[in-house]
Design brief:
Layout: H1 3-19, E1 22-24, H2 25-32, H3 36-45, E2 52-54, E3 57-61, H4 62-79, H5 83-87
Antiparallel strand pairs: 1-3, 2-3
Length: 88
């Protein structure tokens, strides 16, 4: 594969990623404050949000990330003590 073909292939993948409204694995790791190893472990265990694989790279759909953050926020809220319960 020539260098020109590799560059064009990279640009094509980036165009697809943009159309799918995804972020890269590096951006995902930064957002969730995890290492690439943790992201790989999550993928292997099927922990949401699951990525899309294009070639050797993983891309995470923003919609799946939004859903995951909503679930995490609900879990945090439900695990907190309701202040009205303390008054009863």
């Amino acid at each position: 594969m020539s260098e020109e073909t590799q560059i064009t292939g990279t640009l094509d993948i980036q165009a697809i990623v943009n159309r799918l409204d995804c972020i890269s694995e590096a951006e995902f790791c930064q957002l969730f404050q995890v290492t690439p190893i943790t992201a790989k472990q999550w993928r292997n265990r099927g922990v949401a949000p699951l990525p899309i694989r294009l070639g050797n790279a993983y891309f995470y759909p923003l919609e799946a990330i939004k859903n995951e953050m909503t679930v995490r926020a609900k879990k945090r809220r439900s695990s907190q003590i309701d202040p009205t319960e303390l008054l009863a």
